[in-house]
Amino acid sequence: MKSLFTFVGLVLIAMVAVAEGPKPLLALDGVTWTAAETDYIHALQRRGQIKIATNRSAIDRGFHYNILKVFADLAQIDIDIRLVSRRDYFYRADGDLERIKTDPIYAYVPTLIENVDLYLDGITVLPWREKMFSIVKFVPTRQMLITRKTDRPEQLSDLDGKVAAMVADTTISEHLARLALINGLTFGDLYKQNFNQLDRMVARGLADFTVFNSDRAFSALAHYPNLTIAFAISEPQVMGWAVHKEKRVLKSVLEKYLLYAQDSGILDRVWARSYGVSFSHYLNILTMGETSH
Length: 293
Fold this sequence. Notes:
The chain is α/β, with parallel strands linked by helices. 44% of the residues lie in helices and 21% in strands. The protein contains twelve helices and ten strands. It starts with a helix and ends in a 5-residue tail after the last helix.
């Protein structure tokens, strides 16, 4: 009789385990979750989704979405996507965007970050942005000049009088404007809302050059064989995903997942699928500040 009760008990335990379902995110090799992180992951699973804000170009190029999709699959949750413009990342009705960039004391929280779990995009780390939200830092980057192979400049001064394809109000457009001012250069500007339009315009001869962060630059080369990376126009920086400053546990969960993704090779595979080169090769080019293309 005792063995029968033991058997029944084991069956009940197995039934409960099946009902709850596997929790692979909580069982990743080499990852130690705190009690708060475990509770947060359970809460995500009960909710059944993670809410993100992103823009069309980030979705189309794939890397950020695909690496989060692995996370969502491990957690057995869906991704609730809200498509926005990049300006929405920093907007608040009573906020002064220009002031927050220059006033070290002034700060505000964007409306959007209060209504989603994270911004799924390559958000470059800048002091004024870190006053708005926290950034999960994991992608080193540099701003790279993209031109046609047949019209590749040797130095910055060769761009004088050329036409640039840009997205307004971005770190890249602001940096390029500073370089033009410092070096006495004049550019014709063709502003678009979508980064995916910029490399196409250069490839088709509608603009002479554009500038992308280095991860996005490799995607441009993969899509348009007549384009090349001329040279870097900035020092190395770091990009990542933005989360509300108060969501410290979510930030630590994502940081541990991304470290696991890097150590396990997941990040490298997703990177290669999106950009056509391995993450290690990308880092080598980033460090050297040059490319063989």
